Automatic annotation (TrEMBL):
Annotated transmembrane regions: none
Name of the featured protein: histidine kinase
Pfam families, sorted: HATPase_c, HisKA, PAS_3, PAS_4, PAS_9
Source species: Romboutsia faecis
Histidine kinase domain sequence ranges: 542-763
PANTHER family: HYBRID SIGNAL TRANSDUCTION HISTIDINE KINASE C, TWO-COMPONENT HISTIDINE KINASE
Alphabetic keyword roster: Kinase, Phosphoprotein, Transferase, Two-component regulatory system
Record-linked NCBIfam families: sensory_box (TIGR00229)
Swiss-Prot/TrEMBL catalytic activity: ATP + protein L-histidine = ADP + protein N-phospho-L-histidine
SMART domains with a match to the protein in the record: HATPase_c, HisKA, PAS
Residue ranges of domain PAS in the record: 1-69, 106-189, 404-464
EC number of the protein: 2.7.13.3
Amino acid sequence: MLSIYNKIRDYIIVLNYKGEIIFCNESFLNRLNYKQGEIFNTSISNIITNEDKKSVERLEDENKTLEFYSKSNELVRINTNISIENFNNEKSIFIIGKEVYQKTYTMEMLEDLLDNINVCTFIADAYGKYLYVNKPFTNILNKKREDIIGTYNSDYWEENIYKVFDENNKEVFKNKSPKIFHEEILSGENSYWYESYKSPIFDENEKPKYIVSTTKNYSLSKIVSEELYKNYNIATLERDSNGSCNDLKNILTNIGENIINYTNADGLSIMLYDIDKEGLVPFIKLKDANKYLENVEFTRVKLNELKSDKYRVYINRILPRKKFDNTLNPDYKCVDELDYSGNYIIKLDEEIIGFITLSYRNGNGPKFNSDEYMKYISNRIAMIIKNVRLKYEVSVENKMREYTEKELERYLDISVDLVAIAGRDGYLKRVSSSWYDVLGWTEEELLSMPCTDIIHPEDLASFKGKKILDDIEGIVITNIIRFRHKNGQYIYLEWNSKYIGEQEAYITSAKDITRRLEIEKEKITLEEAVKSEIVKNEFFSNISHEFRTPINIILGTMQVINKNIENNNIKLDSLKKYTNYIKQNSYRLLRLVNNLIDINKMDIGMYELRCSNNNIVNIIEDITTSVAEYTKDNNINLVFDTDNEEVITCCDPDKIERIMLNLLSNAIKYTQENGFISVNINSTVDEVVVSVKDSGIGIPIDKLDMIFDRFGQVDESLNRKCEGSGIGLSLVKNLVELHGGKVSVKSKVNEGSEFIFSLPINLNEESNNKYDIDRKSKHVERCDIEFSDIYNL
């Protein structure tokens, strides 16, 4: 609790019933400059006046102003509340209070204060008679205070002016509330504006007693604001304005004269900063400044210097002569004629535009400190200067735009391409005459409809998608779009567009490429025909070789057998050897014929799968085991591996075997002795993946894309290690895809190849497992047929 007492700003003193101090909070101790040990357990009478002792001892008044003596005998008056409360479990006297601050000012002090503020103040009775005016008010009327008191507004102003003042006075009495008025005073050709705050005072009977008013001259602010607003409107609306240097000079001269009237200065100059020359150039010279700056045309000073601490103490303030800095008051010979000078920076958004310099001759000085007000005015002048410069830039831009538009008109008239300006709304804003020549639409028709109305429906999505990219300024987007000719035909246009953010428009050009595309199409058709003819010729040459080779072997073998028969030289071993030749090449012919028949069936859609639910792992494992003898004879290590022993899916067992035999046949053909072939099966919930990998000669990377093409062969020479028509892998691809799967290859030259095919796992509820476990006896003949083109087996 004591810590809480010490944080309270009110003074707290706790006494026991003997009148001894048993606690004081820190606020009380600090105010009387005591330490806790100096008054603790001492009598309250030691620090209180005799008159207040009885009040504390008898508690005769709960609310009492008590007087305490500080350690330095200063008398401190405290408004207190005295009560009985528990403190440390004992009833004690609590004195809690706040200090009483006495009135220390006099009427003379208040009048001095009012005479030295930058605001006119007066008091008038209910009838408008002046009861009091301060010194700034007397300066307006140029009369003494005693001459003004007792007079009326009608004694100084014309009827149209003083009636406004009197009506405003009546209004605040009527509404019984203060109000701010903006009142104009005409003096000769000049107009002055004052902001008057008027507050009514009433007597005890609620009758009007007098008015208290403060009035501030804001003519300078009004003039500057009007110039700023006017120049802003000109810069943004009046596109034909030139924004000349003379416009700015006239504006700043008018403002400068009002600044002199407001500040009572003897001279004023406005110096603007020239970035190229790196210095200040006098732009406006008024009154004495014409003499002081007569020979000054340029003052060199860098921007970083103006922003440094070196000049900061001389900026935005009035200084007496002894503190002048000659750099900002460049005419050294005139400094002795001045008592005061001020420099106010003209700056906007950290950009230094220039300075306003005020000067006061000997014997004259500022009527009041107007530094803050001049900083405000300087900021508004900066805005005016920027606006006038903007006017000039707008004028230059308008002239350039007019020139550009004329150039554009000429370009549109002579351009062969279809040139246009399109808005974000999809409408064309400008088009060249070539649009009519190409599309048959007139300029009026094109400008009256969105360009999407004449774009081919299939190209609309592409056009709108490209348009999103077009919004990135600076990027040129090119696409080919079909536009509808007025006769209904579609014309292909190569469309180029670039987005211009400032105009929210697209600059576009297009070329009619319809004929070019037709020629390209004809060229492609011709190339495809030539390519097809080449492939056909290669095929017939290849297939002729494939047929001729085994036929020649068969015929040659038959001639040898017949010769041996004629010579009666038939031996059983030789005959068996010759019949094996005939058998192998017959198988080869059979394999070739089967492949050609199957490929043709696939082309015309007559090839059918006989699918049933089977354990595909068993099918692949069985056919892999069947070729083990072939790999063993060639000293090739064959490995089979699977993650699952059973994967049931709906497939055609014969076609799966054929796929595997083709892949294994290729692997054996191109794998050297002591190499390896691995068959691996993996499965997921959705598919089974089979890999046939070898350590053979590999396939060049530029041939990988063609090996599944019909008749495609990596080794095209007739002296290949192994013969073949080149349609085996094409058949594999077709068979896999008929099952709904995919096939791919990975290969590196001299490192081997890996063929991977995947099949979806599907089940046919009406199908039973028809896979015949005795099919293994048929595998040998199938292997003989499939491997018949491997001569070195």
